[in-house]
Design goal:
Layout (H helix, E strand, L loop, with lengths): L7 H4 L10 H133 L6 H28 L1
Length: 189
């Protein structure tokens, strides 16, 4: 008894449903290779192009962001420099204004002092002129009264103008001398 080993198909048994036929394996393998080639030729370049575009866009965005940041930093520095310059210019303007204000005040004080001195000098001159006029007027009136009174007391007329003038001047000189003597005694005592 010898047994013989026969292949399954010859023995009449059916093929296993788990194992595909050889033609299907070859066809599947060829289809897989064609699909891989098509995927490598069509899909992968599109993915790589999309990846490259996305990378370029990101890098471009980053470069633009860096450039914008550099421009913003430069603008900030320029703004700070202009601000510092404006502050120093404002300080200079304030200092100039203070100096001009002090100069104007000094000039106005000087003008006020000159004007006050002029007014005082003018007032003194006017007072002296009025005093001189008042003294002359008083002398004239006192002289007239004195001569009238003296004429009544003496009983003679002092109508002569030269005589009247001499009498008045003598009377006023005596009056001034007595006034000066009183002031000298008042300041000594």
């Amino acid at each position: 008894m010898t047994t013989m080993v026969l292949p399954l198909s010859e023995a009449g048994e059916t093929a296993s449903p788990l194992l595909p036929h050889t033609a299907e394996i070859i066809f599947g393998f060829v289809f897989l290779i064609l699909l891989a080639i098509a995927f490598a030729k069509i899909v992968v370049p599109k993915f790589e192009k999309a990846y490259a575009d996305r990378t370029a866009a990101i890098e471009g965005g980053m470069n633009e962001a860096k450039q914008a940041q550099a421009e913003a930093k430069a603008a900030l520095e320029k703004y700070n420099a202009q601000l510092a310059e404006a502050r120093s210019e404002a300080a200079k303007i304030r200092e100039d204004a203070r100096e001009q204000g002090a100069q104007i005040i000094a000039e106005l004080r000087e003008q006020a002092n000159v004007e006050a001195e002029r007014i005082v000098t003018h007032a003194r001159a006017q007072i002296d002129a009025e005093r001189t006029q008042a003294v002359a007027s008083l002398r004239s009136e006192v002289g007239t009264m004195a001569t009238t009174l003296a004429g009544r007391i003496v009983g003679e007329s002092l109508e002569d103008e030269a005589r009247q003038r001499r009498t008045v001047e003598r009377f006023l000189a005596d009056l001034e001398a007595s006034e000066s003597a009183r002031q000298a005694v008042g300041t000594d005592g």
